[in-house]
Amino acid sequence: MNETSVCVGTFTAVKTLWEVRIHKINEELQKEKEFRQRLLLVWEERAALAKLKEKVINEDGRAILRIEEEEWKTLPSCLLKLAHLQEWQLHRTSLQKIPHFIGRFHSLLVLDLSRNSIESVPKEIGQLTSLQELLLSYNRIKSVPKEISNCVNLERLELAVNRSICDLPPQLSDLKKLSHIDLCMNQFTSIPSALLNMPNLEWLDMGGNKLQELPDAIERMENLHTLWLQRNEITSLPETIGNMKNLNTLVLSNNKLRNIPACMKDMTSLRFVNFRDNPLELEVTLPPCENEEEEEQQEMFGIEFMHVYIQESLRKTGMAFLLTLISLEYTQADGYLGLLKHFKRK
């Protein structure tokens, strides 16, 4: 019995010893595996950083990261070692997201990530207080974060052809230096209030949206000189558009306009306008050109067309008013005659 107990005890001790040794071996193997993984990650980051450094160029005194038509679905954190960059130009890279560490690139002046697969803009974008240009056209962005309003030096914002954006946060009106905005090919049904309150906005493209009308408050965009509104569903223009004294380019082709307001004849700064492909009520003919050169320069639905159309519209309106007055006079005259006949009978 004692021998059996000794054997069992010895077996248990040996088993425990082997279990301890196996556990230690497994721990060492796990540590070695983790070390190899860390080492691989370090090498991958070094390789990625080396590759990124090859993409950095100096142009006009700026450090620019330029990548074209190479697949970078995500950007590695080692990019932070290039925090001195002043421009990112990443086009057709299949980039799916803007990294959250973007806010640590305080020297960034231009962030150009056009023609990628980005679906959202992180709120950390608002930490880029030196940023002057934010170019995110041809992506899949659905909404615009209010934190962009913290980019106090922003001058240019491009969100064209994202196809899903339908509004802008009102806080964007705080961007006092913003002068150029491209929102074409999205889902806007009205001009966002933020745009109406931007004092220095000069250039705006909202073509290819679903606008049905322009607000009366559009006159508040007093510094606007270029307005693109082609391919919308606009049926009429407000009288206040005539107060936009600095507007020199207005594109309204492919809408549903039936008339051109007479107030536009007083827009003396207007140099280019396009009313092509609208169901306008009046058919007007431009006066013949004296030579071929004039004919080449003549815009079929441009400035001259607009003025001729307004003149014809006013002429027809005046004639209609005159006919109404004559009709009223005849009606009144018939009334007087009727009264005279009535009294004569008496």
From TrEMBL:
> Is the keyword Disulfide bond in the record?
no
Q: Which InterPro entries match?
A: Leu-rich_rpt, Leu-rich_rpt_typical-subtyp, LRR_dom_sf, LRR_domain-containing, LRR_R13L4/SHOC2-like
- Highest taxon listed in the record's lineage: Eukaryota
| Disease resistance R13L4/SHOC-2-like LRR domain segment(s) | 78-187, 195-272
Gene3D superfamilies cross-referenced by the UniProt entry:
Ribonuclease Inhibitor (3.80.10.10)
Show the Pfam families listed in the entry.
LRR_14
Q: Which residues form a coiled coil?
A: none
Q: Which UniProt keywords apply?
A: Cytoplasm, Leucine-rich repeat, Muscle protein, Repeat
Q: What is its main location?
A: cytoplasm
* Cellular-component GO terms for this entry: M band
State the compartments where it is located: Cytoplasm, Myofibril, Sarcomere, M line
Role of this protein: Component of the sarcomeric M-band which plays a role in myocyte response to biomechanical stress. May regulate expression of other M-band proteins via an SRF-dependent pathway. Important for normal contractile function in heart.
Q: What is this protein called?
A: Leucine-rich repeat-containing protein 39
The organism is Melopsittacus undulatus (Budgerigar)
Q: Which gene encodes it?
A: LOC101874047
